Amino acid sequence: MAITENTEITEAITDAEWAVMRIVWTLGEADSHTIIDLVSQQHDWKAATIKTLIGRLVKKGALATTKNGRQFIYTPLIPEQAAMDTALTSQLDQMCAMCRGQAFVNAIDQTELSQTDIQELITHLQEKLTTAPTTITCDCLPEGYEGSC
Amino acid sequence: MAITENTEITEAITDAEWAVMRIVWTLGEADSHTIIDLVSQQHDWKAATIKTLIGRLVKKGALATTKNGRQFIYTPLIPEQAAMDTALTSQLDQMCAMCRGQAFVNAIDQTELSQTDIQELITHLQEKLTTAPTTITCDCLPEGYEGSC
DNA sequence: GGTTAGAGTTTACATCTGTAAACGTAAAGT
DNA sequence: ACTTTACGTTTACAGATGTAAACTCTAACC
């Protein structure tokens, strides 16, 4: 007797759907009017388009609905940070293991980070350094093949 | 008089196409037989499928072809690191600016990095720290709205 | 109580992706 | 020269995604 069926929270959120989720994550909950209003100010999408995105997010278990009079209140069923982690990690997982470090360097270079963020990253990295391997092997070729990019 | 038409190197590489690109990036160049052979060992795809992917990559300007007898030699037209950066950055760009730091922390936690990588990251971060803002504002809502996630 | 507006649902449709068979053609072997 | 191979191209097709109109109700207003 689960509250929500929660068959599998793990349906990937598409690029367009991210825009909707960000609104709901930030507000905590929102009705469709609010979502449509705010998303329209960021993207040149018709209300109908945003309705479709909301519907798909509900169907894929990313948003919960609570009846409120004639309309629904939408709330996130998956945490924002978890969605971000999943998105980043799946992207990284398909890249050469050996090159991921450099990818981080470049991504971090191009990202505005707060002093606190940076300090936390440094701390984590220093901790990670204590158990880090000397080298990471390129995993672009199948088992048994040599090569590195 | 460009060597290659290079209309726009910026066509995104899809998940399946990454598998092909990684082989070519690692080998520097490869004929289709080699690509099909190696990719088949990593993915349960038919040769025809891999041929399709190669064809699409050529069409979208990610791979160059050089005739060699009855077949082609394929070479990357976009650098691996650039593709990785683009993929990561576009992912990050659609996430809340305020949460990106934490996303990095989590992603780095789940990624194996070499001592050298980590040290380079720390150095970069220490450098970045000198000009970092105290806080990053949540940019999930449209201009003029308050809110943070 | 009848009308209406607006919320959610259905339907639509082109393009992109993943996956693959079929085909045309020229090189390679006999 | 003839056949076979196999490389690249064309075609196929279902499901995902972006984008949006049309439709169905029911709650709200007069």
Automatic annotation (TrEMBL), chains A, B:
The keyword DNA-binding applies. It comes from Levilactobacillus fuyuanensis. Coiled coil: none annotated. Belongs to the BlaI transcriptional regulatory family. The lineage of its organism: Bacteria, Bacillati, Bacillota, Bacilli, Lactobacillales. It comes from the Bacteria. Keywords: DNA-binding, Transcription, Transcription regulation. This is CopY/TcrY family copper transport repressor. The keyword Transcription regulation applies.
